Amino acid sequence: MDVKALIVIMMSAVLVNNYVLSQFLGICPFLGASKELKSSVGMGFAVIFVMLLATTATWPIQTYLLERNGLGYLQTVVFILIIAALVQLVEIVLRKYVPTLYTSLGVYLPLMATNCAILGVTIANIQKEHLYLEAVVNALGAGLGFLLAMVIFSGIREHTENADPPPSFKGIPVTLFSAAILSLAFFGFSGVIENMFGS
Fold first, then answer.
1. How far is CA 122 from the centre of its chain?
2. d(CA 79, CA 189)
3. Is residue 29 a part of any domain in this protein?
């Protein structure tokens, strides 16, 4: 396996094809759980954990069970069931060992079961025909990209909440404008990763 190719896959998932800021998947927890840095980091690490586990489970199930038996049309249903089970596992662990983080994440933790970023990563790994290791690296990169977006956006929200925008921009509008500007900033990475190691 080419290490350079794996680095390109990971960096592309973190920066260029960021699932939140470039593909607009997982917006609900991105907007809802990014008010404080602690909850942003907690949600980011929870998403990384679930993305990695979901990818390690769904890729072999799709490759060796569904496709070989002509059941590829069940992909979305099976993947959602696997992700929901993993989210329940994360919820149980956080409730038992990190109750403050569990409380601060609130409703956004169970919503991870329907987080389209996690489902999007697992399906994209199949559609892009990634090998197993490539799929895991892509999932790790996507999770790190989610964490990066959450941390940056929590800092932005902290500043916008202390600012005094015009009345029509207060609340949700300034949050959405801030997310749009952050998304535009990440488009600046387009073409950088592909040319990182030269031609």
1. 11
2. 30
3. yes
* Other beta carbons within 10 Å of 56: 13
Cβ-Cβ contacts under 8 Å for 122 (sequence gap 6 or more) = 51, 54, 55, 58, 59, 79, 83, 139
Instruction: Evaluate whether residue 193 is within a structural domain.
Output: no
Is residue 160 a part of any domain in this protein? Answer: yes
Number of alpha carbons in the 13 Å side-chain half-sphere of residue 1: 12
> How confident is the model over 14-62, as pLDDT tens digits?
988 888 888 888 888 888 878 888 888 888 888 888 899 999 999 999 9
* Count of structural domains within the chain: 1
Q: Whole domain around residue 47: which residue ranges?
A: 12-188
Q: Identity (one letter) of the amino acid at 36?
A: E
Q: CA 196, CA 122: separation in Å to the nearest integer? A: 26
Does residue 33 lie within any of the structural domains? yes
Position 199 scores a pLDDT of: 47
